[in-house]
Amino acid sequence: MHNNKQMTFSAPFSGAVLTMARIPDPVFASGAMGDGLAIDPLDDVLHAPFAGVVINVARTLHAINLRADNGSEWLLHVGIDTVELNGEGFDALVKDGQRVTEGQPLLRFDLDKVARNCRSLVSALILLNGDRYELSPVRESGSVNVGEPLMQVIALAPDDESAQSTDVRAKQARGSIRVAHNGGLHARPAALVRQTARQFASHAELHFSGASASTDSVTGLMGLGVAEQDEVEVVCLGHDSEVALQALLKALSTPAHDEKPQAPVAAAPKASSKADRENGILHGVTASPGLASGPLFRLDTLELGEDLGGHRPDEQRQILSEALVEVRADISTSLDHDQHEQSAIFATHLAMLEDPALLDAAFDAIDQGQAATHAWSHAVLAQCANLEKLGNALLAERANDLRDLRQRVLLTLLGEARTLEIPAGAIVAARELTPSDLLRLAQCGVGGICMAEGGATSHVAILARGKGMPCLVALGSTLLDIAHEYAHESAHQEVVLDADNARLEIRPDAPRLKEIHSLRAQRFEQRQRQQQHAHLPALTQDGVSIVVAANVASRADAENAQLNGADGVGLLRTEFLFVDRSTAPTEDEQLAAYQSVLDAMPDKPVIIRTIDIGGDKQLEYLPLPAEANPVLGLRGIRLGQARPELLDQQLRALLRVKPLARCRILLPMITEVSELLAVRERIDELAREAGIGERPELGVMIEVPSAALLAEQLAEHADFLSIGTNDLSQYTLAMDRDHAGLAARVDALHPALLRLIAMTCSAAASKGRWVGVCGALACDPLATAVLIGLGVRELSVSPPQVAEIKALVRELDTRQCQALAQHVVSLGSAADVRAASSTFQTQVLTRRASA
Ligand code: PEP
Ligand code: MG
Fold this sequence. Notes:
Blueprint: E1 6-10, E2 15-19, H1 26-29, E3 35-41, E4 45-47, E5 52-57, E6 63-68, E7 73-77, E8 90-92, E9 99-100, E10 105-109, H2 111-117, E11 123-127, E12 133-137, E13 143-144, E14 149-155, H3 168-171, E15 172-178, H4 187-198, E16 203-208, E17 211-214, H5 218-223, E18 231-237, H6 241-253, H7 274-279, E19 281-283, E20 285-288, E21 291-298, H8 313-337, H9 340-353, H10 356-367, H11 372-388, H12 393-414, E22 427-430, H13 435-444, E23 448-451, H14 459-467, E24 471-473, H15 478-487, E25 494-498, E26 503-505, H16 510-532, E27 538-539, E28 545-552, H17 555-563, E29 569-573, H18 587-600, E30 606-609, H19 637-642, H20 644-655, E31 663-667, H21 673-689, E32 697-702, H22 705-709, H23 711-717, E33 720-723, H24 725-733, H25 751-766, E34 770-773, H26 781-790, E35 794-797, H27 802-811, H28 814-824, H29 830-850
Parallel strand pairs: 21-22, 22-23, 23-24, 28-29, 28-35, 29-30, 30-31, 31-32, 32-33, 33-34, 34-35
Antiparallel strand pairs: 1-14, 2-3, 2-13, 3-11, 4-10, 5-6, 5-9, 6-7, 7-11, 8-10, 12-14, 15-18, 16-17, 16-18, 19-26, 20-24, 21-25, 25-26, 27-28
Helix pairs in contact: 4-6, 4-9, 8-9, 8-12, 10-11, 11-12, 13-14, 16-27, 17-18, 18-20, 20-21, 23-25, 26-28, 26-29
Residues 668, 703, 724, 726-727 line the site of magnesium ion (MG).
């Protein structure tokens, strides 16, 4: 046991002493990693600055983590950008878990090589768990010799973890993994990592590129600047380190199911210039499509006056603490009520609000005499600046989430509920809106949003798309000037927000406004017309019935599908019914969920797919082992084979729904006939055990090329085939369906896919089975004629699209569709198919209109 409260940190090198701020690297210099000092070394050996235990030697040998006997943990990082040497020129003289004495050599390195090949030799000596220790430098400049005192480290609280330090090796676990989250470790994934780590007693850290961050700190994690597919190292210390490590590796390597593939970052969004302004048009980047017109209204953000001082720190601490409690409670309430996508955003806000780095900065500023308002505001803005200077667009966007928190807490502190008096239908202009601003605006019935800054991948953009609200970002500061000028004009100047074409027309004339009004009216009327016939069957011109069903993920979706005229449910993704739980649903809970979807669709068939997790979809309560390539790993039906008790439980629940004749079971990720036969057999056994005579129809997903190639054999034993074009594209084109840079090329209208679909349809027809499409291609109006021509007879689309697709089906003639299909399978690219299909559609619709 050690109770050393105070410890001397002696110089691990001889050399010049520098403060952190002088380290030629913004991440170290900003203190984002922690407090400490740096040395510009003169010798080639790093010595132990105290007696302790080696937590971890970096894989690339350029840095070491040490734990002192008083519990303080340190990163000793040799040089800047030395990770890039990949271990060359470095020799580790100690191993992980090894006990070391003060002055013991830890690393030897080739001073010349590092000096020649890296940015700098300046080496950072950083306290990683600074919240529990106070540092007082013995010197901050001049030079030191190895072993001379450099800093005093004083423990602020009893170090109850010190008992663990005697046998770190037994309690330490570490592993490396590639980060799979779209856009890297930005706020949401960082919050998820923090949440995961909190379930365990172990202390966990992420190491990346010579830097490390505690999993406690969302901003610290974001500050690592980890991009998608970067490899990070996770180190866990504590009695449950092994399980904590596995959980963290999984959290890092599994993108959340609701992460949208990110639109390729628009190449330098064109900020509007004076010339644009003179043209009357500002150009931006589309965050959410649509067309709107209305008065331009500028929304200002909260500014604080000067801090007049004279505050009592204890009083201000109390005021800030109470405001934080209030805001946390508000956010938790939103979390309880909001839909999934919004919950994820607010959960991130909650995690940011508990970030020790942020809170420490604010409370420290109060201790130095600032008012709670100003201390909070400065602490947040400093964090924003840190994120923005990392040069990562996604992290810079997350600074907006922090600004949102700044605003929320300030409003609470000031006791001022900012009421918005915005004309209905207004186009709101702001520098950058926060997610809660957007939700408030949506309630005010605004027509659209435009921002001077912001990015298309921000949370605000996600929310705007979810609300169907046209939104442009990155319009440049001219936007704000114009909005300001317009605010002083007596009559409200109307603008046109054409988010489909990423432009804001700032001085539309009367004829243009008239044109926009009539375009919007036309779109509205067309939708109304389509909606009137949505509940009727969709028959082609030559009388062929095409079932237009809906893809759903909940009872609410199913009710919406019913309202929109869906002919049934073409795909219920059961994995999404239970995403928000931390424990597995029981058989009865599953039955209730499935039954509620059937009940929401009276008399209509409902296709329920057995659980398809793995790959891009994960469930909290069902941790899967980390896989090098999860998309090619244990997913879909393979998981059912690996965990038969799970599949059995689901099948039992499915066999109990009533009426069973309306329930069709669909199996995901089938690659060969034996998988189907095994499930059919199991359904028989379970039905017999339960005394059920009836059997539900059983279909298979055709979503990997082997299934399409084997469609004839599968159709012999399946009652129907359902094509999952999302995965079929990914596996046929060898392009990750979530890959930001390939998003535009993962096009299911690729002729190779169409050939697989053609093959599937003719094989199924030879066995008298029907084929549906439940992948996203079914929602694409340009694909409707092609799919019908290839022989598809059910299209399962998102509920709001049922009316539109049914209307389109009614314009088509299957013989013409067949000719089109025959033609497009012989083309060479998806782009060619799109062009041919577009020409076909224009011809058909024009002919129909003139008939
Ligand atoms: C598909 O792959 O097309 C499909 C419908 O399944 P999911 O998108 O759920 O993987
Ligand atoms: Mg799929």
